Amino acid sequence: VILSVGFLLIMFGNFKIFLIFLAPIFGFVCGLSGSFLLFDSVHVLVIVISTSLVGLMLDFSCGWLGLERRNIVSSNSIFKLKRLFLLALLITMSGYLLFLLSPMNFLHQIAVFSLFGLLGSFLISYFLIPKIFNDTKFKNPNFIEILLSKIQNFFAKFKFNPLYAILSVFISLICLGFADFKDDIRNYAKS
């Protein structure tokens, strides 16, 4: 969280950027509301696991504002990204819809929480946040772009060699052979 807050401040240079956290807050309220609407009780682990949605919920706003950070933000500029946002929302929601095929009620709760949460986050990111940031001007941190340019130039020196890719896959497969996939949620309850 601290790194995210620092990164947002460095990239946008304006405390108003923290208003994008309205999206995950509203998304969590929608997720909880949808869960309690469809289930008698909600397992606490559903809420804990669903905190991983915060990044997804911020992606809509951060993606749009990142494109607009050099200009004075116009609330209408988000409409250019409508198709991209809808595609991202549908792909992510379809992944969580697969949880409903599981026989476990716990996964059904995660799916419902996530579906309602993502939809709520999308709606506030698309309809309210652009109005909040309308006519906002962010500072342009040139040192980040200079740093990224230097990193890009550093890695451009390395030539791609298919042998390295094959070697990496081979080492990964060997390491995969030592992995233990006997994962049982009952073992977590014992500790």
Write the layout of secondary structure elements.
Layout: H1 2-12, H2 22-38, H3 44-50, H4 53-68, H5 82-97, H6 105-127, H7 129-132, H8 142-156, H9 162-177, H10 185-190
Helix pairs in contact: 2-6, 3-6, 4-6, 5-6
Number of helices: 10
Class from helix and strand fractions? mainly alpha
Total DSSP E strands: 0
Principal-axes shape call = flat
Tell me the distance between the termini. Answer: 27 Å
Instruction: Report the mean per-residue pLDDT as an integer.
Output: 87
Poorly predicted residue ranges:
none
Main sheet makeup: none
**Rg from alpha-carbon coordinates:** 21 Å
β-sheet strand percentage: under 5%
Helix content: 55-70%
Main attributes of the structure:
mainly alpha, 69% helix, 10 helices, 191 residues
Q: If you had to describe this structure to a student in words, what would you say it looks like?
A:
This protein is mostly helical. Helices cover 69% and strands 0% of the residues. The protein contains 10 helices and no strands. The chain has helices at 2-12, 22-38, 44-50, 53-68, 82-97, 105-127, 129-132, 142-156, 162-177, 185-190. It is flat. The two termini are 27 Å apart. The relative contact order is 0.14. The model has no long low-confidence stretch (mean pLDDT 87).
Offer a concise description of the structure.
The protein is an all-alpha fold and 191 residues long. It has ten helices and no strands.
